Amino acid sequence: MDSIFSSTGQLAAAILDRKISAIEALDAHLAQIDAHNDAVNAVISLDREGARSRAKEADAALVRGAALGPLHGVPFTLKDMHETSGMKTTVGFPAFADYIARQDSPVVARLKAAGGVLMAKTNVPTMLSDWQSNNPLFGRTSNPWNLERTAGGSSGGAAAAICAGMTPFDVGSDMQDSIRLPAAFCGVYGLKPTEHRVSLAAAFPNPGGAARSVRLMSCLGPLARSVEDLALIYQIITGPDESDTDLAPVPVKDVPKLDLKTVRIAFAPSFPGFPVAGDISAAVEDLARQLQGAGAVVEEAKLPGLDLHGDLEQGGALIGMMMEAAQPEPREVPTPISQWFEALARRDRSILAWDRFFENYDALLCPVAMTTAFPHCEPGTSIEVDGKEQSYWMLPAYGAVFNYSGHPALSIPCGQDSAGLPVGLQLVGRRWSEEQLLGIAKAIEPLAGGFRRPPGY
Length: 457
What we know:
Blueprint: H1 8-16, H2 22-40, E1 43-44, H3 48-63, E2 75-79, H4 106-113, E3 117-122, E4 134-135, E5 139-140, E6 142-143, E7 146-150, H5 156-163, E8 169-174, H6 180-186, E9 189-192, E10 219-224, H7 227-237, E11 264-267, H8 278-293, E12 297-300, H9 308-325, H10 337-357, E13 363-367, E14 383-385, E15 388-390, H11 397-405, E16 409-416, E17 422-428, H12 434-448
Parallel strand pairs: 2-3, 11-12, 11-13
Antiparallel strand pairs: 1-3, 4-5, 6-7, 8-10, 9-10, 9-16, 13-17, 14-15, 16-17
């Protein structure tokens, strides 16, 4: 078997069936990291000895006849933001360069309890604050499809490592398209669950034990090379957790096997006033035609009558207010509490408008971002989209709409553009409908084309 580009599920099954040992699976991924990470720079804080010890434990457990869980012996990486016992968590910020948490975050603990073997962290922009993964501690991550292009951010190291076969999966964070955009740029899959679906406890380094300020719009979710793996990891990390009281008590269900003839899909090649490359909008229209041909009910979307640009601005303002609240000392002009409540009221109106939209559709098919992977540049530089300069800050717009509304959304690879770069499309569903959304994505996967191994890896 090809242990490097096998799915997480295939790798776990092969280890349990003794077709490959956990040590052999780890060594294969470490060799891939050694061969390609100097150029891509996706993997950081590599813990060879710790991973080897955990892999040996997994192999020893099988000798005793004990299975550790659905990830038994599978090596994996994590975005450099999750607090991990014994490993650095830096978010690319010099002040956190040597920070090591006392214990694992709930998400990390669940992955380890399922038998996973944590190898390393993956690179991010400083403080997760950009759509390119570059920071003063570890440098810049490049896209395996073209090293002159970005892998995206803030989960860019995760997406690039998965694309290059350095890890079978990762768990990223998404406050403004930060899972879906890099997944699209690198041609892998990424899921942003419904807000308050996965614990955010210890999902950011917190040396001083300060009150958690990020309570809205941010989500943790998996990146992988197949829908099946997204579902597997999602079901491991989701669910109640006593350290995050915001979590909704929604039961985790099995992902259904769906017939496209039972599915109703709206499609939008673009949103009003949002730029998008012609290759991306054409991919939306082409997939919509294929879905219709496969028997799905497909209609061009009549989007809610919302001021989407205004929603993006309000979302940014809410993020700014949360960051302001996190400051150790009060500002001279703190944000009035009335402004906070007004911002939440506007957000409520947007959430309800999208809820009404999804009363008529099982999913919305639309772009993930306005462009495919663009050349490395300084943050804020205009981005060329079909020969026209567009605002850098519109890069995550298509995804950030659903951070603002809280709806689940995932990125699926759907072919390549005229430059040979991966095209990713977005599927969005009803709140709390992750399992159905994953089922729809699984049914669509053969039509969209799925993950393609980049040349040279």
